[in-house]
Amino acid sequence: MARIGWGLVLAGALSLGVVGTAQAQDNAGNEAASALIDQAVDETASRNYDVATGLLEEAFNICRNDGCSDDVKVDLFLNLGITTGLQGDLAKAQTRFEWALGIDAEAKPDDRYTTRAVRGAFKKAKEKVEAGNGTTPPKPAGQLTDEQKTSLETAKTQLDGGDWESCLQTMIVSTSIEEYGRGKLMLAKCQEKGGLLLEAKRDAVAAQDLAKADGDKALLTEIDEYLEYLDNETPKIKLEIQSGIRNPVVKIDDAVIPEEQVDQPIPHNPGTAVIEVTGTRGGQPYEWSRAPPAPVPRTVRTGSSRPRC
């Protein structure tokens, strides 16, 4: 299958290429994405629209992570418009056409492989783009705004200087405007510096979810390593409850621990913990409470004091 400019032409096989030209750029994802687009063209010609769309979405993720030139992106978006439209999702098809037209106003799908409905979606997309209301494609994975970059640089300077509270406030403000993976990760690091390891894990997991949604593979790797580090650094309480205590209810710092977690190491921020256990022993109400004198982690054995009725 041959390419002219950023269009696909027939070369012994069907093509869903676009008509037009664009200056090629040297982008790392071009070769891999183009190969997937070619495979998708063949699948679409065989009416395997779901397979074709899957291949194109894979190419889309490559372009977002590794970068693709405009000609490859236009080719990709037009083909996505065709395949999603043929699957019946005309709203999504229109959006993909808008992405393509936003790069090249003269781009158009090959009508040999469209239907009346798909052509209608393209017409609406063109009208919307010409009116200045076209949808823009998602920014490259991990791309930050200038404001986000400034916030991250400020927070890092504050953290390096030992001022974790200012770091925390900087990132709370930044992520309240728009949640983004790298911002949530920095927020977690601010909290970690202040000994708030459980809160750090919560925001690191939120950063992980955002990175997954954004398709940012590099950030995901960084977050995975950080979560492993946090898990190793987080103190844990191990409870050993005497078998004679029936129906125990365990609280740590007034928070009830789910029954299925009682016999597992329980993460806790550095410092001391107030542990309470209630239940029955020997048919009598049982209460046990203790603030261990030593910081966690430690193994705590309940039942070492007399029950209080």
List keywords for this structure.
Serine Threonine Protein Phosphatase 5, Tetratricopeptide repeat, alpha+beta, three-stranded mixed sheet, disordered C terminus, 10 helices, four-stranded antiparallel sheet, 13% strand
Write structural notes for this entry.
The protein has 309 residues and is an alpha+beta fold. It folds into three domains: 3-130, Serine Threonine Protein Phosphatase 5, Tetratricopeptide repeat; 146-233, Tetratricopeptide repeat domain (Serine Threonine Protein Phosphatase 5, Tetratricopeptide repeat, Alpha Horseshoe); 236-301, no CATH class. It is built from ten helices and nine strands. The strands form three sheets. The protein has a four-stranded antiparallel beta sheet with strand order 5-4-7-8, with no helix packed on it. α1 runs parallel beside α3 (70-86). The longest helix has 18 residues, at 49-66. The chain is elongated. The model is unreliable at 1-26 and 304-309 (pLDDT under 50).
